[in-house]
Amino acid sequence: MSQQADYSPSFKRPAEIMRMRRKRARSEAGVHSSSGGEGSTASPGQSGSSPACVRPFSPGPLFNTQNRSGGGIKRRNPFANIENTYNSPKKRLVIYNDDDNADFSDTVKLKKRTKTEGEEDMSTKTDCQGVLLFSERLIEAEKQETQEVFSKKRLTFSEDDSLFEEEEEEEKSPLLKSPRAGAPASIAPPVCTEYPADWSMKTRLLFTSPLSLSWVEQPKAQEEALGLSQHCRAQYSTLPHSLQDPRSCSELRCAFQQSLVYWQHPSLPWIPLFPRINAERNFTGKSTPWAQDTALQHSLMSEWSVSLSSLYSLLKARLCPYFYLCSYQFTAVFRAAGLGGSSSITALLSPTTRGLREAIKAEGIEFSMPLVEGRRKSREQQSPTVQQGEEEEEEFSELKEDDDCQADNEEEDDTYNDDEDGGFSWLKEMGVQDKIKKPDTISIQLRKERDSVSLDHKPESVVCVEGAHTFTLINFLMNCKSLVAGAGSQAGLPPTLLAPTSFRGATMQTLKARSVNVKSQIGSSYQDVSSLEITGPILPSSLHTITTLLRPAQRGGFSAALYTHAPTAVMNTHAAKQQCVGGSVNLSGCGLHPATIQQLQQPSSLGKSALRQITMTNYNYTWKN
């Protein structure tokens, strides 16, 4: 029984079928002539009258006795057994082959075996029309099977045609699954309930949502007062996962007013003091009484120094998480220990110039240039077996992008000295040394300065200061005369200080929020979309707090376009040498929401880029940078 598991009366050639049909016709003619003349009875196993519709063994067609010329009676198939029946489980046997060649060879063997067995079975067929139909079906099935056998690796016997055919990968029985079919087809994307920390400053946010955002406007006097009080006391209310009617939720409206607050020094209502880089147009035509008054300038700088000292003291005590210093030349961010993946206070300045870097170095402040050093390390890892002479040439070419570090300058001096001593020795051999003018020391120095200055005002010029050197940097900024513009529309005006918490001399400010309902084209139709626009110096903590409030209010569905202040995009560079383990530094008293603290403690993964778009769908974030 086990040897006949693969039995199938298929795979017949038309020529063989026609030959067997003619042979049976001759044999049947002799049998009928002898039985008709002698009047003998039918042989055992045959009935005297054929039924109206007789179906031979599968897959033959139904025979009609009216069209049977010979009047032959269907006899029992001597090769039929239980394994050929309709409900035979072995006819559903699945063949697993991992090699295409093995599939094809097994198929050929099976076809040869079924040919031999089928020749004997076909002797039972006596109807010409049925044989022709049967042969046509075999030819079509054989062509289809030949095309599919090379591409499919799971084959099974059909119940009616006994041919190989496809079997779906989603087999219900686990015992009939191949090892390859058991592997997962694809890995589901990770669920992101939070977006990465972005230390760049935003000038504008534009939120859109299919649900109304009108709840952010026209707060009641009590709600606005409560929101300002909660901000000063660092109190945060817990909101439910989803809100049905945000307009009627007083806690949500108070929390939104709380998220719009920031602190600034100095504060001049008639002049926008952010941004300061390339912002001369904002100061044009405005009243600047300090421009020609030296005493007023000294008074402004004195108050500014007090505020900066207060901010650093709060930062050191972890009562202020971070603050920004925005001058007309560069922007600096000071972060408390534990933020940005660093265990110490860090400061990032961008963009810088060669003169500023030399002045910082002259004060004994140690700093690093993370983007330049990262590029240098990547190049060294790509070609670790470079010759010494080639390394010197590469270092010389890298000076166009690297800073003017002292070690590099010494190596360059050695190189130029070598060139000066022996680089022109071949001219003496030719006797033309007096006709060629050698480069003097001034030309060599100018060339070195040109290479180092090429980094100025670029993102690669970002400078990182860590630890106790940040205190020396604060003293340097207080006494640096070039920190304040000496001419132009910003002359005499000290840099702008921005922080999420209060400090000495600071003024409380709020971001401007405006909600508008518009129609947006989606496909071929227009749908009502609500938008929320927020403008002002938007700090990283304010961005996270606002998105946290929109999550329950908009039921986990909104999108935001972020407009970044370009010089601050490089603030996402991670350059901390002293790594911090998450949660090892206690920042519970810094005045931020615990969820915001947890996000800002993680090292930024954005590099020198910033977030441009945030989308929330079903309470999960996706973003673009």
* Domain unit count: 4
Which structural class best describes the helix and strand composition? alpha+beta
Distance between the termini: 68 Å
What's the mean pLDDT score? 75
The fraction of residues assigned to DSSP E strands is 15-25%
What does it look like?
- A hairpin with a 6-residue loop joins strand 4 and strand 5.
- The model is unreliable at 37-71, 93-104, 108-112, 119-128, 149-186 and 396-422 (pLDDT under 50).
- The protein is α+β, with helices and mostly antiparallel strands and 625 residues long.
- The protein is 35% helix and 16% strand.
- It has 16 helices and 18 strands.
Observed structural traits:
625 residues; 16% strand; seven-stranded antiparallel sheet; six-stranded antiparallel sheet; extended; alpha+beta
List the helices and strands and how they pair.
Elements: H1 14-38, E1 53-54, E2 63-64, E3 94-96, H2 100-121, H3 128-148, E4 154-157, E5 164-166, E6 202-209, H4 221-233, H5 250-259, E7 261-265, H6 280-283, H7 294-316, E8 322-326, E9 331-335, E10 346-350, H8 354-362, H9 370-382, H10 388-398, H11 406-422, H12 425-430, H13 441-453, E11 463-466, H14 469-479, E12 496-499, E13 507-510, E14 512-522, E15 525-538, H15 540-553, E16 557-564, H16 594-601, E17 613-617, E18 620-624
Antiparallel strand pairs: 1-2, 3-4, 4-5, 6-15, 6-16, 7-12, 7-13, 8-9, 8-12, 9-10, 10-11, 14-15, 16-17, 17-18
Helix pairs in contact: 1-3, 4-5, 5-15
